[in-house]
Amino acid sequence: MRKFLIAGNWKMNGGEQFTFDLLSVIKNQKPAISEDIDVLVCPSFVSLSIAIDQLHKSDVLVGAQNIHEAEKGAYTGEISASMLVEAGCSYVLLGHSERRAYYHEDDALVHKKLQTALRNELAPVVCVGELLDERKENRHFEVVKAQTLATFEGLTYEQAVQVVVAYEPVWAIGTGETASPEQAQEMHAFIRSILAEQFGDAANAIRIIYGGSMKPANAQELLSQPDVDGGLIGGASLDAKSFVSIIEIAESLTNSVREIDSPTTLEED
Ligand code: 13P
């Protein structure tokens, strides 16, 4: 069974004071999190330490929003994967559409970063998703297929199951417009079918989460889709009440039947 991952991408919002205040309210409103789901927050680099300190006895995981692809060296202004691991991060977001659009990150660079993350045992959440024009031109499957293949190229089964895919249709990010549950399910199932061609039944162990204007009002429907394994939440993760409410929706859904093969059945075949 795939565990839901409910992740907050805070983007470039919130310094230390904001981080402390927001996490205090989240911890207060949600002192315990069901072990059936994973909850992650990804604050800015300068707020990671305070988040890690504040959450070290809680069930909430902390991740970063980017890494450099090199292990270390003369890359002024950059942050390495090992620095983040040493700081206490367990996840990193990679290939977000904002980084692809504003910092020219292409599939090849995202793949290098992915390999660096895996080498350092930092779990990558790799974002894929089509632009509005690409959907209008009916090219969304083609675009997401290319991004997915580039992400997983050359990975072993053991590496692949460490990766989380975040399907974030770019037209739904920060726009208030959400993919319908049917659109999300259709794309998630498509991504899983691509992964199944490469990894067989192990594709059933890879989490595919949805991002793009997820909020309490639409989370239930989105998270009820069989191939939607969580959410990558921007705006609504900056509001404790909304984020906690999405976590609670995910918790309530883990009790419903999500019939999914475990990857261990693969090895037994
Ligand atoms: P919003 O939830 O604000 O649309 O952002 C989604 C996102 O980009 C998460 O990475």
Break the fold down into its secondary structure elements and pairings.
Elements: E1 4-9, H1 16-29, E2 37-42, H2 48-55, E3 60-64, H3 81-87, E4 91-94, H4 97-102, H5 107-119, E5 123-128, H6 132-136, H7 140-152, H8 157-160, E6 164-167, H9 181-199, E7 207-211, H10 216-223, E8 230-233, H11 240-254, H12 264-268
Parallel strand pairs: 1-2, 1-8, 2-3, 3-4, 4-5, 5-6, 6-7, 7-8
The structure holds 1,3-dihydroxyacetonephosphate.
1,3-dihydroxyacetonephosphate is lined by residues 9, 96, 168, 173-174, 211-214, 232-236.
Can you describe this structure in just a few lines?
This protein is α/β, with parallel strands linked by helices and 269 residues long. It contains 12 helices and 8 strands. α1 packs parallel to α2 and α1 crosses α11.
Could you characterize what this model shows?
This protein has 269 residues and is α/β, with parallel strands linked by helices. It has one domain (4-253): Aldolase class I (TIM Barrel, Alpha-Beta Barrel). The protein is built from twelve helices and eight strands. The chain has an eight-stranded parallel β-barrel with strand order 1-2-3-4-5-6-7-8, surrounded by six helices. β2 (37-42), α2 (48-55) and β3 (60-64) form a beta-alpha-beta unit. The longest helix is centred in the C-terminal third of the chain and has 19 residues, at 181-199. The model is unreliable at 261-269 (pLDDT under 50). The protein binds 1,3-dihydroxyacetonephosphate (13P). 1,3-dihydroxyacetonephosphate (13P) binds next to β8. 1,3-dihydroxyacetonephosphate (13P) binds at residues 9, 96, 168, 173-174, 211-214, 232-236.
